[in-house]
């Protein structure tokens, strides 16, 4: 088991990563001081629940914990306020009071939704995350929880740090291959924004990582969480530095939305976004040629690096202008300065963005 300590003052917490950790959950909960008297509500989705929910619950009840069980439908559409209200109702009926806590077993959807339930239920109770997707290594650090609004993704939410994260990498073996690749996109992102050594390590480990070798995958998750934790601990509420975590996401979110949610996975859209934004940095003269190396690494993980969907510049630019990250009407991008370093850049000309999009489609450099 590897452990990373996320340092954010009184709200610091450990992230444990390793194979077979679900079986150690009762002990790990005791380590953070949760006694068997604390009533627990295990929240999961129907797919993850069917695979792992019963075992986790049984282990805990065998060790004398009282655990309620709440299942939500799998998928992004569960991240909505009306479902949160139903879930709160289930908690109230189950007698969960202020001394209770939530266990969030699943991917980022369960983490965001159950985390927001924990943030708001009885004005806030603690929660522990049990991530089961690779992408959830991203959502397990930073404390962002929330739901979508019909007018925009993640529009309603809070900052609520988990008390602990327990990442059992054995669960990743049942993830569809496309979801695994998608998760690696965010791992690669964490390497690219902060740590050239981590990038080289990923380049060497791709094959082991793709077959989910427990040692390598635990190391990758540890390193990815470490980068995010370091950035977040310097800027918990996203006033400055934290924005570099949006690398690949300005173009990525535009692609994801314009293609229609579900046609590209989030990681696929971010992979394309990272290549596109690297091209944008090159076109703006902000960094030496890096986009080819970035594309090679992403492609080795099975991620797309050429835009083949028929989306116009206008559609994409319009989406980018509507992005939450637009400040004072200016498009702001997190752009690479080289491998391992990203800076915030604003006020870019639209013509440069068009040139980068053209290259992302496989067109000539400008
Ligand atoms: N809070 C944050 O900082 C943050 C960061 C990144 C992403 N997110 C959010 O995370 C969400 C995406 O997360 P995700 O990609 O984990 O999606 P997800 O939670 O929807 O999981 C993807 C699918 O895989 C299934 N699944 C999960 N684990 C499985 C396993 N081990 N075996 C088999 N199937 C499994 C799920 O049931 C689901 O159908 C988005 O809503 C995004 O906004 C949040
Ligand atoms: Zn992302």
From TrEMBL:
CDD domains: DHQS (cd08195). InterPro entries: Dehydroquinate_synthase (IPR050071), DHQ_synth_AroB (IPR016037), DHQ_synth_fam (IPR030963), DHQS/DOIS_N (IPR030960), DHQS_C (IPR056179). Its main location: cytoplasm. Residues 183-326 form the 3-dehydroquinate synthase C-terminal domain. It comes from the Bacteria. Zn(2+) binds at residues 186, 249, 266. Keywords: Amino-acid biosynthesis, Aromatic amino acid biosynthesis, Cobalt, Cytoplasm, Lyase, Metal-binding, NAD, Nucleotide-binding, Zinc. Its EC number is 4.2.3.4. Signal peptide: none annotated. Pathway: Metabolic intermediate biosynthesis; chorismate biosynthesis; chorismate from D-erythrose 4-phosphate and phosphoenolpyruvate: step 2/7. Residues 70-181 form the 3-dehydroquinate synthase N-terminal domain. NAD(+) binds at residues 108-112, 132-133, 144, 153, 171-174. Its cofactor is Co(2+); Zn(2+); NAD(+). It is found in: Cytoplasm. The keyword Isomerase does not apply. It catalyses: 7-phospho-2-dehydro-3-deoxy-D-arabino-heptonate = 3-dehydroquinate + phosphate. SUPFAM superfamilies: Dehydroquinate synthase-like (SSF56796). Binds 1 divalent metal cation per subunit. Can use either Co(2+) or Zn(2+). Catalyzes the conversion of 3-deoxy-D-arabino-heptulosonate 7-phosphate (DAHP) to dehydroquinate (DHQ). Belongs to the sugar phosphate cyclases superfamily. Dehydroquinate synthase family. This is 3-dehydroquinate synthase. The lineage of its organism: Bacteria, Bacillati, Bacillota, Bacilli, Bacillales.
């Amino acid at each position: 088991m590897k452990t990373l300590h996320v340092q954010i003052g009184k709200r610091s917490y450990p992230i444990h990563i390793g194979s077979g950790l679900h079986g150690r959950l009762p002990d790990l909960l005791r380590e953070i001081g949760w006694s068997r008297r604390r009533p627990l509500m295990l929240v999961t989705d129907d797919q993850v629940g069917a695979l792992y929910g019963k075992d986790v619950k049984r282990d805990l009840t065998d060790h004398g914990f009282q655990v309620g069980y709440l299942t939500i439908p799998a998928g992004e559409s569960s991240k909505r306020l009306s479902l949160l209200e139903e879930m709160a109702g289930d908690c109230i009926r189950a007698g969960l009071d202020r001394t209770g806590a939530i266990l969030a077993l699943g991917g980022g959807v369960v983490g965001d939704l159950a985390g927001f339930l924990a943030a708001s239920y009885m004005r806030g109770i603690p929660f522990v995350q049990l991530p089961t997707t690779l992408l959830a290594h991203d959502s397990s650090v930073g404390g962002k929880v929330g739901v979508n609004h019909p007018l925009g993704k993640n529009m309603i939410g809070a900052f609520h740090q988990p008390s602990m994260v327990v990442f059992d990498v054995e669960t990743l073996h049942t993830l569809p291959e496309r979801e695994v690749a998608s998760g690696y996109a965010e791992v690669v992102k964490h390497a690219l924004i902060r740590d050239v050594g981590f990038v080289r390590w990923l380049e060497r480990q791709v094959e082991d990582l793709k077959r989910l070798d427990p040692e390598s995958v635990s190391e990758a998750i540890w390193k990815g969480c470490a980068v995010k934790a370091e950035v977040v601990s310097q800027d918990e509420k996203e006033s400055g530095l934290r924005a570099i975590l949006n690398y690949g996401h300005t173009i990525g979110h535009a692609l994801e939305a314009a293609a229609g949610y579900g046609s590209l996975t989030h990681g696929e859209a971010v992979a394309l976004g990272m290549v596109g934004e690297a091209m944008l940095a090159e076109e703006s003269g902000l960094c030496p040629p890096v986009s080819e190396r970035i594309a090679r690494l992403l492609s080795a993980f099975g991620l797309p690096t050429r835009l083949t969907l028929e989306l116009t510049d206008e559609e994409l630019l319009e989406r980018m202008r509507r992005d939450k990250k637009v400040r004072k009407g200016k498009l702001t991008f997190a752009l690479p300065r080289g491998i391992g370093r990203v800076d915030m850049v604003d006020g870019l000309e639209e013509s440069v963005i068009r040139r980068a999009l053209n290259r992302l489609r496989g067109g000539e450099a400008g």
